[in-house]
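Data card: per-record layout.
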Amino acid sequence: MDLPVARIWTDGSIDKNPGTIGGWAWLLKLPNGEEIRRSGAYELEGVTNQHSEVTAAIEALKGVIQLAHNGELDVVLVMIISDSQYVINQGEKNWKRNTNLELLEKFDTTISLCTDMVKAYHNPQYKALAEMVPRVCFNWVKGHAGVPENEVVDELAGLEVKMVQAEVIGRKYDSIIAHDESEIIDDMLQEGTG
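The structure for this 194-residue chain is written out next.
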């Protein structure tokens, strides 16, 4: 008997390390083979690759919680699959924590909430098996090794960073234009009163 498992590939990306823009993505494979993909980005001074990788895992778990809450996901096990040893070891083994403490606290809370949601699975067929396995587990996959799902989340996270970079450049350009227009108007007003 196969357990209904939600497999989620996650990845994070940044503009530089440390940087100012972090991107995240996740791809959820449901037991029926259906896929759900989500991605996003954020601006944060000093963001590191580790930060964006953990953010991707948090966002994936939040997605599972939302789907389960809406009755769209009934699984016994949630498996986070990441190419980040940091995510795997923080999620499962709780490596010693020196940085990203607030983010890792959020990670722990999200894992706990997701575990509670998975515990609410009520199919009696799987109850005994479900008690023998962890509710949320973490598996490492080698990055850039041709694993299709990992390649997809890598690409999505990178695209999110590039979109924010373009937006930031656009804001700077608009600011320069607005500043130049303001100076031109000030000059015209000066000339008109002089």
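Known properties of this structure: The mean pLDDT is 85. The longest strand covers residues 35-47.

See the next section for split statistics.
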